Amino acid sequence: MNSGSQILAALQKIPQKPTIHAIARREFPVPFNTKLTVEADTAQWSGSLQKLEPPPDVLMSALGTTRAQAGSFAAQRAIDYDVNLSLARTAKESGIKTYVLISSSGVSSRSRFPYLKMKAELEDAVRALEIPHTVIVKPGLLVGSRQDLRLAEAVLRNIAKALRMISQTWLTDWWAQDVDVIGRAAVAAAIECSEGKRPEGIWILEQSDIVRLGRQSSH
């Protein structure tokens, strides 16, 4: 499962059972309080968000793809950067107060790696929108089953799993996090913002913050 699936799973555990709108590229089973919009063309997602009535209080985006899946870096950027920024702009225009973006650790606008540079540019762009509560979640390696597995990630993920067999999590928390922990942390942060427990502004969740919030909310 990816971060988006785990965010949905964490949302289902909120006692108040809020109405959840999910926009996805394909059909998948959803609980009774989740309204699913299926739109294969991610360029249309902002329009789908705009049509929601009433507008949601929170927008959470874990949208992303790989270069291999997209076919080129330009096509990957069109999803990872262009669509995510369009969604964030629509959130701002719709009066959404809390925006949560799943980004990545190690990003830099000066990076020689196009992916990390792109992620940094997206973070800068959504910061500039000044949505009242902007939460940027920056996990390390995602541990858990994923369909879009790349060889280098697969090797590192297996190393992380092996280390956890001998140390539980203390050897990996600083560089790899379970996708369910990331999902719970993102939801916990959104709730804190919505309930006024955090001041308005930018809230960066580094890996230690993800582990702390994700594990606290599991109890």
The H-and-E topology, N to C, reads as: HEEHEHHEHEEHEHEH
Oligomer: single chain
Give the total of beta strands: 8
**Gross morphology:** globular
Mean pLDDT: 84
List the total number of helices: 8
Percent helix range: 40-55%
What is the makeup of the main sheet?
4 strands, parallel
Q: Please state the CA-atom Rg, rounded to the nearest Å.
A: 17 Å
> Structural class of the secondary structure composition?
alpha/beta
Strand content: 15-25%
* Strand neighbour order, sheet with most strands: 3-4-5-8
Low-confidence stretches: 145-167, 170-175
Distance linking N and C termini? 21 Å
What does this structure look like?
By secondary structure, the chain is α/β, with parallel strands linked by helices. The chain is built from eight helices and eight strands. The chain has helices at residues 3-11, 45-50, 67-70, 73-94, 114-129, 151-167, 179-194, 207-216; strands at 20-24, 34-38, 58-61, 98-102, 133-137, 141-143, 176-178, 201-205. A four-stranded parallel β-sheet has the order 3-4-5-8, with helices on both faces. The chain has a two-stranded parallel sheet with strand order 1-2. Strands 6-7 form a two-stranded parallel ribbon. Strand 4 (98-102), helix 5 (114-129) and strand 5 (133-137) form a beta-alpha-beta unit. The longest helix is centred in the middle third of the chain and has 22 residues, at 73-94. The chain is globular. The two termini are 21 Å apart. Mean pLDDT is 84; it is low at 145-167 and 170-175.
